[in-house]
Amino acid sequence: xxxxxxxxxxxxxxxxxxxxxxxxxxxxxxxxxxxxxxxxxxxxxxxxxxxxxxxxxxxxxxxxxxxxxxxxxxxxxxxxxxxxxxxxxxxxxxxxxxxxxxxxxxxxxxxxxxxxxxxxxxxxxxxxxxxxxxxxxxxxxxxxxxxxxxxxxxxxxxxxxxxxxxxxxxxxxxxxxxxxxxxxxxxxxxxxxxxxxxxxxxxxxxxxxxxxxxxx
Length: 216
What we know:
It is built from six helices and five strands. Strands 2-1-3-5-4 form a five-stranded mixed beta sheet. About 35% of the residues are buried. By secondary structure, it is an alpha/beta fold. It starts with a helix and ends in a 9-residue tail after the last helix. Strand 4 and strand 5 form a beta hairpin. The longest helix is centred in the C-terminal third of the chain and has 22 residues, at about 185-205.
């Protein structure tokens, strides 16, 4: 698919996604997140947006505190947030804020119904983009592509998977939320560093060595 055709398809896709209410959300202040990338070779898939990310004036994944952490990680391998957002299609398992967790700590995990209703958007994106690299972030996103396993058996490795859009290399990341304690263990920090180095190497291959600051 040519770049111009893909861009037109993603424009139409995002226009339809932007007005989606399949999962029953009727709060006008909660709308689906969208990605501006129109010629991506890479997709990053999160779990579900937070409240700050799905307001009408935002609509960007990872725009809150967890996003700041994630983009600090990526900055260490030489890619800044504007470049990443423009070149990587950022999606999620579900695209609307699911609401607060009943315990009052963090956000609610999207229900199975919400995940099923939203899955058609990700399937369509995989088929259109046919990404060379997938970066699932957090356990919910990782398990869309890889069998359930402890994170220390998954993070820091390159996996090959088949999906609706073909075959991709998969490099998972842990969720950058402050609610997750996984990355605090020294051994897990090393796995995160290894995963980021692997992502950096893949981006250099796909974008060219000069695309990352450390390679310039």
